[in-house]
Write the structure tokens for this entry.
Amino acid sequence: MLLGTTRDDAVGECFDKAARLLDLPYPGGPSIQRAAEGGNPKAFKFPRAMLRDDTLDFSYSGLKTAVLYTLRDHPDADRADLAASFQEAAVDLLIAKTERALERTGAERLVIAGGVAANRLLRERAAGLPAELFLPPMKYCVDNAAMIGAAAASRLEHGMVAGGLDTAADPSLVLCADRED
């Protein structure tokens, strides 16, 4: 059952793009986290899009754009403050939407996975949510490239080979033949 999805950029993609704007190395998640150390997370008021709406959907394109405009308008802004403020906004939205999802579903367990699951602030804040929390060891918090490879392997194993290199992206792609989601 899909509870919510991104309307534009995924959070990891937003970290990568914000890091690029801040002249930080790829991948953006670890770079932003390091740059944020010692920074003031309240120095810049970045948006938390869709925070007050009733959906469980996310939107991160406005946050990325806010970093761009802040750098344009304040080129000498402290990078640690920018990184800390960005990270705070990104994690605030994840935590708020996750807490709302837990309330609506009554779920008692929460798994956080993917590259952003390595973020220290996210892990700390998720520990305060009203659910038993499962976090993978850091070595398993990997970029989506590994997940795309696993999905491709599953589809190949189930004889679900489609298209060539010109195949369009499909975020709702079925991973194996005996499942519908």
Notes: The first strand starts at residue 109 and ends at 111. The chain has a mean pLDDT of 89.
